[in-house]
Amino acid sequence: MKVNIPKAWKNQLNDEFDKVYFKNLVSFVKTAYKNDTCYPKADAIFAAFEYCDFKDLKVVILGQDPYHGAGQANGLCFSVQDNIKMPPSLINIFKEIEQDLKLPFPNTGNLERWANQGVLLLNATLTVKAHEAGSHQKQGWEKFTDQVISTISENKEHVVFLLWGGFAKKKIKLIDTSKHDVLTSGHPSPLSANRGYWFGNKHFSKTNAILKKLGKAPVTW
């Protein structure tokens, strides 16, 4: 596994790469990709950092695992490759945007366009074995991505964190809420959304309202 993280991010996270847990994680991932089909493609593992420059970062969305179906994961949480059927959670995200901002349902589930506007689409675990959800959890990824969140909290100001579902909400302990905005809701998965915990959260208009108040450009969702 090549840690192809842009220089600005690498400068922020440099201490992590020499730690024992990260070296063990690299070894695990190399072996996993050699022996099994894993997602995303090896060159897209750190795509979230490549598409969203540290200096441009203004919104963080947290996911848990990459999609584990063929051709889906592209290294950005909730996002899929162009021309790939949208998973249910992503469909519900777009339905909420439709209701909230009156924007048309998009033709693609590829969220690179969000990342290019300063939205970090970060999964807690950055790799997964094909067709085995959660298969690469507890190997060190969570420790690394927790450090990413803590680093953003410490070294940036006025970032909007969107924490969807119980897993993501626990990450609030890593965020200095005195200098960042945190919006929480249920997860966009059908189980949560159909129980009334997702739709109507208006996170997309609320995020843009916060950004405008700060004098930052709103996100074109």
From TrEMBL:
Coiled-coil region list: none
Top-level taxon of the source organism: Bacteria
Family annotation (Pfam families): UDG (PF03167)
PROSITE patterns linked to this entry: U_DNA_GLYCOSYLASE (PS00130)
Keywords: Cytoplasm, DNA damage, DNA repair, Glycosidase, Hydrolase
Annotated active site: 65
Enzyme class at the top of the EC tree: hydrolase
Example of a GO MF term: uracil DNA N-glycosylase activity
Database matches in HAMAP family: UDG (MF_00148)
Task performed by this protein: Excises uracil residues from the DNA which can arise as a result of misincorporation of dUMP residues by DNA polymerase or due to deamination of cytosine.
The name this protein goes by in its record: Uracil-DNA glycosylase
Name of the gene encoding the protein in the UniProt record: ung
